[in-house]
Amino acid sequence: MTLAERVRYPDFHSRIMTAEEAAALIPAGANVGMSGFTGAGYPKAIPLALAKRIEAEHAAGKSFRINVWTGASTAPELDGALAKVDGIDMRLPFQSDPICREKINTGKMQFNDMHLSHVAQHAWFGFLGHLDVAVIEVLGILPDGRLIPSTAVGNNKTWLDLADKVIIEVNTKVPEAMEGMHDVYYGTALPPNRKPIPLTQPHERIGEPYLRVDPAKVVAVVGTHQSDRNTVFAQPDAVSQKIASHIIDFLQTEVQKGRLPPQLLPLQSGVGNVANAVLAGLQDGPFEGLTGFTEVLQDGMLDLLRTGKMVSASATAISLSTAALEEFSSNLDFYRERILLRSQEISNHPELVRRLGIIGMNAMIEADIYGNVNSTHIMGSSMMNGIGGSGDFARNCYLSFFVTPSLAKGGSISSIVPMVSHVDHTEHDVQVIVTEQGLADLRGHSPTQRAELIIEHCAHPDFRPALRDYLARARKGATGQHTPHLLNEALSWHQRYVDTGSMR
């Protein structure tokens, strides 16, 4: 299908131009809202053209950087290309690009690591400054000017509402059959005029399938024909499989105790191989009639839908491997009845997470003996990717799991430490910690009780004696005994790693 056939609003035909011409409409210093969420639904041609323009401006001795707001991580064509030419001053809210990461950690790029549910809200409140330009990927434009979303909705609604200028990238590679898979809610309001969000079931429709835009703000329409970033998932290894089995056994026990229904509660799963392994484990588990209410629909959740283990899934983006994408595209009639893509402020909304009783499963870098979790920083200072939506879910869900292998860097790092080097999720929000060693249910326990559970069930045997020793000495020497710490030792494991390359 041609671009003209996808752009069915006649007034926009005169605004069709090249990516280079559209990129020329973005001024230096602008706040630019880009579509995209975890490698899905991001603009592909315009950021590359903008990067070339910025590179030329820098070569001519001129300053040219922009501030990039997205839904979450994007792809090399956006984050990578702009970071490579030193074109980003401020980035938010979440990134996973290696060039971005290097720029952030060398102080060459500012990074605002926000909770994903906060981004649209804070932009609307005016906390982030004025949004100058929105660059939004869609799969088509209706005859009345409404936009058909692509593989991610993210913060697109908010960017379209707030931006002075809108540039639309129409991706003819995205199947037309995705039309109708989206649910964009327009019932939000600013305080004090807010009303409850009328969603009580994970697959309930509360909005409309399209994005609205003021046609007068649209300054350019650009065509592309390109797939999203290829998401690569490793086959679940032994460690991931053990983590998955611990979680599934625990959920079975919760059902037996009457604390969960047989079909569980809606599942949220973070990004990555361990999360995907947990979903794969559910495929062979005893649960039927599962539902999903999450941020990103990955291969594992698609598999559950295909086999009928899961009856519906709500997300803000679809991020699949090449093989899973082919399966999805070939069976869109089937998936369109079972998948809803929502705005990010809805998929991650604390009100809905609490009301639906989400079971949240997210990855972490490390946890300490009292249950604080670090999911973003290496050795306390270096940003990995960002908090993403895990905080939205952890604080508000029915059950909050954090998972990680017990060792890192070939065994030189323990993922269970006396005190985390950075806190993303406090001990108040973390209910269950899982490694391949076992599972620690922290609910209803005091700090020292939690410490004993985490050390005995989650720490690797190589580091368990040292953790026991730390806790025993803290119980004798700390100034207080509620959460006993030896302040001169609490971060000594991290310092030892920095100094020697090992925590041992």
Provide a descriptive summary of the structure in words.
- The chain is of the alpha/beta class and 504 residues long.
- It folds into 2 domains: 3-224, Glutaconate Coenzyme A-transferase (3-Layer(aba) Sandwich); 238-490, Glutaconate Coenzyme A-transferase, CATH 3.40.1080.20.
- It contains 18 helices and 26 strands.
- Strands 1, 2, 3, 4, 5, 6, 7 and 9 form an 8-stranded mixed beta sheet that branches. A 5-stranded mixed beta sheet has the order 10-16-21-25-26.
- Helix 4 (76-84) runs parallel beside helix 5 and helix 8 (238-256) crosses helix 9 (273-283).
- It is globular.
Q: Mean of the pLDDT scores?
A: 96
Estimated share of beta-strand residues:
15-25%
CATH class call of the largest domain? Alpha Beta
CATH fold annotation of the largest domain: Glutaconate Coenzyme A-transferase
CATH level-4 homologous superfamily of the largest domain: Acetyl-CoA hydrolase/transferase C-terminal domain
Sheet of most strands: 8 strands, mixed
Number of domains: 2
Shape: globular
Please give the CATH architecture of the largest domain: 3-Layer(aba) Sandwich
Give the low-pLDDT segments.
none
User: Structural class from helices and strands?
Assistant: alpha/beta
Strand segment tally? 26
Gyration radius from CA atoms, angstroms: 23 Å
In DSSP terms (H or I, runs of 4 or more residues), the helix count works out at 18
Ends apart, CA distance between termini: 60 Å
